[in-house]
């Protein structure tokens, strides 16, 4: 009987992994061409502040995700996890197609906002794992979500890049709707993948939350949940050790997401203006390498590194590695583009791959040592990251718009210098963090 139960749980985890993995492929698909789509719509609308609009479109997704995640989480406590997961997949199916068909920048922003709104299902997927896992199983099973992120971020951008502007590459698409809407094909593929996920969830994924356990886990409405999140963040910001680490997390995410908005603006820019003239497909391959590096680092390097070095020691190193990579991006030349860009992106991805689990581990140590509730502290950490992900793309797009045509100290390279500067500030704060409680201050 116990073997049968374990087999059932393994089946649930497998289906949940596939659902999340396919969902993340769909999310990653839009990355290589989002900037190109926004640029095309901006030109048609007579808009010149392209960088700012790229930032606004990118910000719409994390902003909506931040606003909707508490709502979906609370609703899943009342009606179950499975219906919420399926609602999110239905929403994704619609939103991807809408984005590919967007005739204006306003519709593009609405499409990305709705996609972020419906994509609160990642938090619900984590809650699903919590429902079917014992405390000692949580860490390894939560790793499934991280693995799905890494794999989805590897395959998604590659697929999105290769399928963008198909009429320019394959004669069969000439004169079709894909000629008029060059980014519709990858969006339709993302919609199709969401439908596959929906069918898997509908037919193979049972409900994890029993009826008798529903409705009594949280009585907060959306506004109450948001107030609770803000209150938890402010309280945690004032706590010794935890507060400085929250600032480290927020600054790091801020500097990193500034780069998200401007990376492709730089790579697709004309070589005459200092860019690389990359196509959507070439950018998709770059992001695939970034995703693959992240998988290698988090799947193969973190464990031996964490056994040899304390998290407190690795965190500043990760910040320095990332900062060097971000600052080096705009110095790639057309002649040696791949020879410069690929190692640079591997450096950035390595720094990020070390920072994410290391900061979470260090936060857990500080919380336990200070007698804080781990869930509340981790929630504050996610809120800090969410604020940074909302502000980062807009800041990056604005700085790019103001400096791209400048000279002297203010050029297209300035925004990447800003990223490196923020990483330097992050380093200064990280060096003031106390030693890990488990290290006994022996560093």
Write a structural description.
It is a single chain. With 443 residues, the chain is mainly alpha-helical. It folds into two domains: 1-207, Growth Hormone, Chain: A, CATH 1.20.1250; 220-435, Growth Hormone, Chain: A (Up-down Bundle), CATH 1.20.1250.20. Helices cover 76% and strands 0% of the residues. The termini are far apart. 50% of the residues are buried.
Mean pLDDT: 86
Strand content: under 5%
Weakly predicted, low-confidence segments: 439-443
- Counted up, domains total 2
- Given helix and strand content, the structural type is mainly alpha
Could you name the CATH topology of the largest domain?
A: Growth Hormone, Chain: A
CATH class of the largest domain: Mainly Alpha
Spell out the CATH superfamily of the largest domain: MFS general substrate transporter like domains
Distance between the termini: 49 Å
Biggest beta sheet summary: none
Would you identify the CATH architecture of the largest domain?
Up-down Bundle
Search tags:
443 residues, mainly alpha, Growth Hormone, Chain: A, 16 helices, 76% helix, disordered C terminus
